Amino acid sequence: MWTTTSCVRARPETAGHDHALASPGQSSRRARHWQGVTRLVSGRVAVTGANGFIGRNVVRHLHDAGWEVRAIVRPGRGCPLPDGVELAPARFVAADLVRAAAGSEVIVHAAGLTRAATTRQFETANVEVTRQVARAAVELGARLVHVSSQAAAGPGTLERPRSEDDPPCPLTAYGWSKLAAEDAVKTSRHLRWTIVRPALVYGPADRNALALFRLARRGIALQVPGSPTTAYTFVHVDDVARGIEAAATAVAAEREVFFLGHPRSDTADTLADTLERVMGRSCRRVRIPYALLRVAAAVGDVATRCGRPLALDRARLTELMAEGWVCSVEKARDRLGFSARIGLLEGFVATAAWYARQGLLDHQA
Prior knowledge:
Layout: E1 18-21, E2 29-34, E3 37-40, E4 44-48, H1 53-64, E5 68-73, E6 86-89, H2 94-100, E7 106-109, H3 119-140, E8 143-147, H4 173-186, E9 192-198, E10 200-202, H5 210-217, E11 220-223, E12 231-232, E13 234-236, H6 237-249, E14 256-260, E15 266-267, H7 268-279, E16 284-287, H8 290-305, H9 314-320, H10 330-336, H11 344-357
Parallel strand pairs: 4-5, 4-7, 5-6, 7-8, 8-9, 9-14, 10-13, 11-16
Antiparallel strand pairs: 1-2, 2-3, 12-15
Helix pairs in contact: 1-6, 2-3, 3-4, 5-7, 7-11, 8-9
């Protein structure tokens, strides 16, 4: 178990001038200047949603980077953890979270719901839970890094990337719930917070992209109605974890919102081209009629209400038909010193390799 005595480790890449910083109610932490950014040195961190796609990658990355990590999951749910990471089951109420995260200098809130049968389910899982996490962070004097989504901000195009300064324009109940969760963080009194909005996240263990890879293996690249030059900002889950660490350590990140994405956006055509290269075969572009997509989305809604969500529902269709999902990553570069490293080709190669190791590519799409 952790004690409340501050324990930090110096990391090789943060070598440089250092000094102590202290915030009210928090123990002193060392800070170092590196590449023009003042950073707090890694210490103790609690990660909610540690059994989720983003959460487990954040746990692994922070552990490898020298943090002391506590993985918070709901009672009765386990997850594979690196040696040295402590599992901390907790209900998502402030009192339980204070106990589970005791001694933490940073809390990364990566828990959340991306699919739900009702708006109320989104509100409970994404908004109410965030309020409880924020209260726990205030009581502990911990810094909160809240993992939101570009869905909270809305679409953007190559000509007009969505920026942190743009008025939010969510398209779905999920997006509105993530925006409401951001508001819950921003309005929490005495809370030291940073919000990150990952763009389209993918990587090994991502089940959302599996159907695309299975179809590409069979020589099919599905495309929705609209322009093949519709653009998207992708971000590999490993880069998301790096960006979250940057947000947790950069002094200038407090009370700020940051998009996390690769600096190069990709179009629907380049997405299909990349799938062809990764799967080693030519793919026939198949454009799905909008009427058929609407029928499939309606079926997906029924499946979600029955507890068996499909790849497409009406909310996903609304997002698919947007003019683009491009975001500006300049603020994260300038204020956090963060830039995503993994391009789409490299990331898709790693993702396909993981699917193959799990025997998932041979199943029916």
